[in-house]
Amino acid sequence: MNNGLPFSHPYNLNRLGQAGDEVSFAATEEDRAALARFTGILRVDLFAAHVALRKPAPNRFQLDFTLEAGIVQACVVSLVDVPSHIERRFSRELHFDPALKRAKDRPEEDFLQEDDKPEEIDSLHYDLAAPLIEEFVLAIDPYPRAPGVAFEAPQETQDTPENPFAVLKGLKSGL
Question: Which is more confidently placed, 10 or 109?
Answer without folding.
Answer: 10
